[in-house]
Design brief:
It contains three helices and four strands; from the N terminus they run ββαββαα. By secondary structure, the chain is of the alpha+beta class. It folds into two domains: 1-34, no CATH class; 36-99, no CATH class. The chain has a two-stranded antiparallel sheet with strand order 1-2. The radius of gyration is 19 Å and the shape is flat. The structure holds zinc ion (ZN) (2 copies). One zinc ion binds at residues 39, 41, 46, 48, 58, 62, 66. One zinc ion is lined by residues 39, 41, 46, 48, 58, 62, 66.
């Protein structure tokens, strides 16, 4: 079987129209917005699973349901933000060097 052959995403039946190279199907599934993913709060007790494209909405809509878990999340997020601003600073520095 040729890996370069274009095949439909396995999520075709639930809406993904994309054609991907056979060899890259797995890679695509890991980013496909129709792939079923678990809520980011899964490890904190939320059992919801839905398409990647909907999960952000779920996470925004059910803040209250997630509320008991928020404590942990807030800590995680502020850590992430700190990491992000660190890399932003690095980027800014790079830009200043160039200009
Ligand atoms: Zn897909
Ligand atoms: Zn959830």
């Amino acid at each position: 079987m040729c890996d370069k052959k274009l095949v439909h995403c396995p999520n075709l039946s639930i809406g993904c129209q994309l054609l991907v190279e056979r060899g890259k199907t797995k890679q695509h599934i890991s980013v496909c917005e129709f792939t079923e993913v678990a809520c980011a709060y899964e490890s904190l007790g939320c059992g919801v699973r839905m398409m990647r494209k909907d999960i952000e909405k779920h996470e925004a809509n059910v803040r209250i349901a997630h509320f008991p878990m928020m404590d942990k999340i807030v800590k995680l997020q502020s850590e992430m933000l700190r990491e992000q601003s660190k890399s932003l600073h690095l980027l800014e520095n790079e830009c200043q060097k160039v200009s």
